[in-house]
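Input sequence (224 aa), recorded before submission:
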Amino acid sequence: MKKALKIVLKIFLVLFGLILIYLIAVFSLSKITVDQEPNTKPEVEIYILTNGVHTDIVMPTKNDQIDWSQQVKFANTKAADSTYKYLAMGWGDKGFYLETPEWSDLKASVAFKAASGLSTTAIHATYYKSLREGADCKKMMISKEQYDRLIRYISQSFQKDASGNFLNIKTDAIYGKSDAFYEATGSYSLFHTCNTWANSALKASGQKCCYWTATDSGIFSKYK
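Predicted structure, token format:
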């Protein structure tokens, strides 16, 4: 009996230690700032947007470099409105996106898969007609060359069919009239979260960001 209790205690201490190390990493690594590339030309307007937990990257629906609506089709949204000027992209766990409209709906199986990296992922794409800067929405101006890199990073996050088309997920689990879901690449985990993805998008395009972060607050702390 004593031997069993010692084993249980050791397991508990190991788990507690791992959680503590993770929390320290989340706090400390997000404090390390990767600065914006010098001499950035203010040519393309982009935004970061948070709902309090999850960070989206927001870009023009189209410019002379890319027309996102050719792949992220207006027709895949309920509104099917082609007048939207901005497109927000967020990457995350597919189970969270499609099966957890509210935190009260969270299933243990979904949480376990998301934490362990065993589940699939999705891109949540939302169109906007306008954006207003505030605590949850920050604007930045980047160069066309930097935007090319951001386009490449986000495009590579989509699964594609044999013709190179993004794969729309047919689901009723949409959040409004202007959003849709798409199959994504990669696995979600405690070490690669939706905010890690957004932070890497900023890093790929030479913008101010964290060395690493799992949270939206880490990203937005750089834009106060």
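Checked by second reader. The chain has a mean pLDDT of 91.
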